[in-house]
Amino acid sequence: MDFNDVSLTALRVFRAVADQGTFTAAAATLGYTQSAVSRQIAAIERAAGAELLERRRDGVRLTAAGRIVMRRATVVLDEIEATARELSGLPEGAGTVRLGWFPTAGAVLVPRALTTLRRTDPALQVTGREGTTPALVRALRAGSLDLALIASAPPFRAPDAESPPLALQTLTERALCLALPSAHPLARSGFVDVADLRGQRWIAGPAAGEDRLMGVWPGLDERPEIVHTARDWLAKLQLVAAGCGLTTVPAALAAAAPPGVRILPVRGGPQEQRRQLLARLPQPPTEAVTRVAAALRAAALETDVPEGSE
């Protein structure tokens, strides 16, 4: 085992593959060819004398040896990046937090927290990106994110089976809501009865890979009629405003709903609860991460929405 000849490029490629979950996605992110990525991974595995990535049909995951190397590689890469930031002349005491969030959290919760941080901690730098919960969890494991806002639905299992378990904190647990056109007959009341959802037209997200079918009310005892498919939540809400159909949304999105959309609770069946959680690796957080987490908690408390919002 000899890591003396392992380059920073190989370490960055290794982290990108673990982060993105596939060689192809890592190559696209880095601007490399897939063969170049494969060569860098082969080199670091030769140096380690062990397989660091388990190749599976749905992508790759870190092996036990891979987790050890990733933990050490993250320290090295973070120190290099910190040195670059310090040499660039950032104010003393400035910290950088790499934040990830699931799509709808970027509509209200994240902007509110960042607005607060600009006022209270102007020297603190927050860089961020949107992603699905599985992708954000991979990025935390790979060390390319410090903190992630992830989503969870019943039965609220751990976001992955890796060890050690991620440190998780629930920010909110609220009932899933329904977005419908203001002129829709079901919008006349302050809530929608679940029995009235039979026969409705739906706007859903694509069901592929790690994403479940999002947008259709869970547990309907019929095959839903999906008239439009859109991944972007804003596109879904604009289609709702145009009278094209209904879609499901977290309660917190009421604050970002366009004109012509009502956000209503659904009654008459089991409550469809959804959680927003903060996730990070289990080691003690830096002061900067602690401050960002506090701002997100405060913003979550401000996003309680009254029933029947429009």
Which helices and strands appear, and what pairs or packs with what?
Blueprint: H1 8-20, H2 23-30, H3 34-48, E1 53-56, E2 59-62, H4 64-87, E3 96-101, H5 109-120, E4 125-130, H6 133-142, E5 147-152, E6 167-175, E7 177-181, E8 192-193, E9 201-204, E10 225-229, H7 233-241, E11 247-249, E12 261-267, E13 273-280, H8 287-302
Parallel strand pairs: 3-4, 3-5, 8-12, 9-10
Antiparallel strand pairs: 1-2, 5-13, 6-13, 7-11, 7-12
Description:
With 310 residues, this protein is α/β, with parallel strands linked by helices. Helices cover 35% and strands 22% of the residues.
Calculate the terminal CA-CA distance, rounded to whole Å. Answer: 62 Å
SS strand fraction: 15-25%
In spatial order, strands of the major sheet run 4-3-5-13-6
E-strand count: 13
Overall average pLDDT = 87
CATH topology of the largest domain: D-Maltodextrin-Binding Protein, domain 2
Fourth-level CATH superfamily of the largest domain: Periplasmic binding protein-like II
Rg measurement, Å = 22 Å
Gross morphology is globular
Quick structural summary:
This protein has eight helices and 13 strands.
Q: Notable features of this structure?
A:
310 residues, alpha/beta, Arc Repressor Mutant, subunit A, D-Maltodextrin-Binding Protein, domain 2, five-stranded mixed beta sheet, 8 helices
